[in-house]
Amino acid sequence: MFVMKRYIIKALSKLSLLFTACFLLLSCEKYLDVKPDQMLAVPESLDDLQAIIDNYPFQITQSDALEVGAGEFVVTDANLASLSSDFHRRMYQWDPYNLFQEGTIASDWARYYTTIYNCNTALEGLAKIERNNLNAAQYDQIKGRALFVRAEKLFHASLVWCMVYDPKNASNTLGMPIRLDTDFNKRSSRASLEDTYKQIIADATLAAQLLVEQTSSPVEPNRCIADALLAKVYLYMADYENAFKYADAALVLNNQLLDYSTLDATKPYPIPQFNKEVIYHCLAGYPQILNTVRAQIVDDLIASYEPNDLRLDLFFIKNADGTYGFRGLYTGTTSLFMGIAADELYLIRAEAAVRLQKTDIAMKDLNALLVTRFKKENGKTTYREIHDMNSDELLTRILLERRKSLIFRGIRWYDLKRLNRDGANIVLKRKVEGKEFILQPNDLRYALPIPNDIIELSDIVQNPR
After folding, report:
1. How is domain 1-211+427-465 classified at the CATH fold level?
2. CA dist., res. 409 & res. 88, Å (int)
3. 357 in the Ramachandran plot: left (φ > 0), alpha (ψ -120 to 50) or beta?
């Protein structure tokens, strides 16, 4: 990471303008009435651009909507009634409308598009600065980071507000608004999902070419992180050749796994922040509905862990009423981990491998991961390695281990969408005050409603219901 602390004060003087620009880019006349001071908004040097792109609080923050609706927990009526906000109650029961806070810079939509605006600001600033032998390294890192973050935010926004990517109909499916500049006089409209993913892949691919292989902190984009994002995107798109390719490339750069037997289960949050598995650190807040008492993990998931599986003790805490709450967060705190870790990459490569009939590689990856998750007795693991499984059985096991390993990371929603696209027929059910709520496979509610204020201020089309 380039030294930037001395530039952060200068950057902060511009941040209020950048935050406001999130709304300006929607071209609402209401916001166009107040013009920003353009002299203050123009970055003057690579160091200014570096400070803008290193605005980590916005860069690493994701929406908790990727977890609330994913069906891995239930909440009692009394605990739902005790929530201070009604947004998560509606999200919990898959209501079709009014799921997001509106009219604030802290809203989920605003955070995503403010970050994209910051990326575009940096890229436009770079275009005005000559790249030469003296500044090439910093220039390329700024460009690579801006492209990566823009791709990553657009991808995660699509998981919230778009239906699943299906190569058969992506050109006719509503995607996200694609903002590639800072011109707030342009009204936003939705691209197709196909064009959205072409942009994500183009940005992430170029970012991987520009970024250094490794950085000192997992909040700083690097080549490993860009490759990991591409692996995740391609898996979602059912492009298993490329999912395998990029997961493999990322694991060449970072394949370290935690030995769970070395962790202390007596700690409130046993898994440390920035541990060696963390490739990219992103997080979401910890809404009331997800605390360990309210969010009671569904019984079938708890029952899927074997007695010697350390994840059962490290991930969950048993409540007084016999239910289980989740605490195995890779943030080491109550914040949800929404980034990418090596365990996910092993599972991506394993799944892609088995779908490509590379069962030996898939078994090797699955065994390499799971041996680190089981108890040891007399210095030897209690895990029984997988040797003889056909491809269908192995795929089923890999998908189960994704569910067991990657819980509360926003990944189950991602998996539900893509697996139901492919015929998994996973139905979610919850009961509130005696009424049953059901989310059918491929239901239109898998694309959450765009906030009404965004619809009113732009040419953006609301998701159908």
Report:
1. 1.25.40
2. 17
3. left
- Tallying the residues shown for the chain, one arrives at 465
| Cα–Cα distance measured from residue 335 to residue 273, given in angstroms and rounded to the nearest whole number | 10
In sequence order, what are the residues at sequence separation of 6 or more whose Cβ sits closer than 8 angstroms to the Cβ of residue 163? 173, 174, 193, 417, 442, 444, 446, 447, 463
Which of 125, 226, 121, 108 lies closest to 176, judged by CA? Answer: 108
3-state SS assignment for residue 181: coil
List CB contacts of 423: < 8 A, sequence separation 6 or more.
none
- Alpha-helix runs per DSSP H in 237-327: 240-253, 299-303, 311-315
Task: Kindly report, residue by residue over 107-147, the tens digit of the pLDDT.
Answer: 899 999 999 999 999 999 999 999 999 999 999 999 999 99
Can you tell me whether residue 135 is helix, strand or coil? coil
Query: 3-state DSSP call for residue 208?
Result: helix
The region that residue 142 occupies, defined by phi over 0 for left and psi between -120 and 50 for alpha, beta otherwise, is alpha
Judge contact between 327 and 286, C-beta under 8 A.
no
Q: What is the DSSP string of 26-92?
A: TT-HHHHTS---HHHHS--SHHHHHHHHT-HHHHTB--THHHHTSSSEE--HHHHHT-S-SHHHHHH
Separation of alpha carbons 427 and 447, rounded Å = 16
Q: Return the domain boundaries, the chain.
A: 1-211+427-465, 236-423
d(CA 227, CA 356): 19
Output the CA–CA distances (angstroms, integers) from residue 423 to 400, 420, 440, in the order listed. Answer: 16, 5, 12
With tokens 């690493």, the residue in question is 60
Residue 21's pLDDT is: 43
> What are the pLDDT digits (tens) for 185-240?
889 999 999 999 999 999 999 999 999 999 999 999 999 999 999 999 999 999 99
Q: Which amino acid is at 322?
A: G
> What's the pTM?
0.91
1-211+427-465 against 236-423: fold identical: yes
Identify the CATH class of 236-423: mainly alpha
Q: Is residue 301 pLDDT above 70, yes or no? A: yes
Query: Tens digit of pLDDT for each residue in 421-454?
Result: 999 999 999 999 999 999 999 999 999 999 999 9
Q: Which residues contact 215 (CB under 8 A, 6 or more apart)?
A: 1, 221, 222
Q: Residues 163, 170: contact at Cβ < 8 Å? A: no
Q: Report the pLDDT averaged over residues 378-402.
A: 96
Distance of CA 191 to the CA centre of its chain: 21
- For the record, the structure tokens of 403 come out as 């569910």
- What value does the mean pLDDT take over residues 59-63? 89
pLDDT, position 41: 53
> How many angstroms separate the first and last alpha carbons of the chain?
45
